[in-house]
Amino acid sequence: MAFGISDDLLGTFVPVAVYWIYSGIYVMLGDLENYRLHTKAEEKAKNVASKSTVVKGVLVQQVFQIAISLLLFTVVNDGSGVVQPQPSLLVILGQFMIGMVVIDTWQYFMHRYMHINKFLYKHIHSKHHSLVVPYAFGALYNHPLEGLILDTIGGVLSFLLSGMTPRTSIFFFSFATIKTVDDHCGLWLPGNLFHLFFSNNSAYHDIHHQLYGNKYNFSQPFFVAWDRILGTYMPYSLEKRKEGGLEARPIKKDLKMN
Ligand SMILES: [Zn+2]
Ligand SMILES: [Zn+2]
User: Fold this and answer.
1) d(CA 77, ligand 2 centre) in Å
2) TM spans, by residue (predicted)?
């Protein structure tokens, strides 16, 4: 217990709060024209969904996420009220690693299948792709069914298979949330630690949101391993845009642009 609030409740609600706080920081940072991966004009022209539609869409998804999370913690709870002791830091780090691999593996194959299956793409996954120019709080703008299958079930599997405690999951799910928001921030900011530690980042995922990159860079949110192993990796370079700012441009060698 922390301040009388159970780890189950914290594991459920902290990641939701973290989503809005972290993307709120990006909103407060403003437009930062010189670090944007796309111009504002491009965002206006290409993004079909309005900002208010996106906020409502994310909130709906988070309601589902909260319900499943509460259900999961109720099921795994033995009802004794005794808080599971935390293992050593090394074990926790190992559980984090397993959790990341599980989420990545689940999301890669589900995400890729949603692109292969035309029905699923048209009716479910295309909603996420309606933001051709991604921005932070649009990260979880998904069809509720996609949120459930990709994010929530992926999260449940990572929790169960890694054996992490509900307390660890507060940090793990918050970290996964921050990473997902960061991958959609639409900016290439100097000093961003995620860019240092992960080759899966805002530019990498930006490629996937473009029409030409739609069949590439499915990996999310942590590593790029599955794209590399299964040949769906689209290499890119960051180039200066003539209007200012940077742009992720694909390096088009031996790639079928479909
Ligand atoms: Zn996609
Ligand atoms: Zn995305």
Assistant:
1) 33
2) 12-32, 53-76, 88-109
Q: Which of the four pLDDT bands, split at 50, 70 and 90, describes residue 1?
A: very low
Predicted local distance difference test score (pLDDT) of residue 29: 87
Which ligand has the nearest atom to the CA of 115? 1
Alpha carbon of 67 to ligand 2 centroid (Å):
23
Residue 119, domain member (yes or no): yes
> pTM higher than 0.85, yes or no?
yes
pLDDT, tens digit, for every residue of 120-160? 999 999 999 999 999 999 999 999 999 999 998 999 999 99
Nearest ligand (C-alpha, residue 146): 1
Instruction: Provide the residue range defining the domain that includes 232.
Output: 7-77+85-250
CA–centroid distance, 152 to ligand 1, in Å, is 16
Decide: residue 203, CB within 10 A, 0-12 exposed, 13-18 middle, 19+ buried. Answer: buried
In a domain, 257, yes or no: no
Number of domains in the chain: 1
Note whether residue 255 is domain-resident.
no
* Alpha-helical regions (H) of the chain: 7-29, 40-46, 51-76, 89-116, 118-120, 126-129, 144-146, 153-162, 166-183, 193-197, 202-209, 225-229
**Does residue 234 sit within a domain?**
yes
- Closest ligand to Cα 180: 2
| Distance from the alpha carbon of residue 56 to the mean position of ligand 2, in angstroms | 17
Between the CA of 251 and the centroid of ligand 1 the distance, in Å, is: 20
Mean pLDDT computed over 26-34: 87
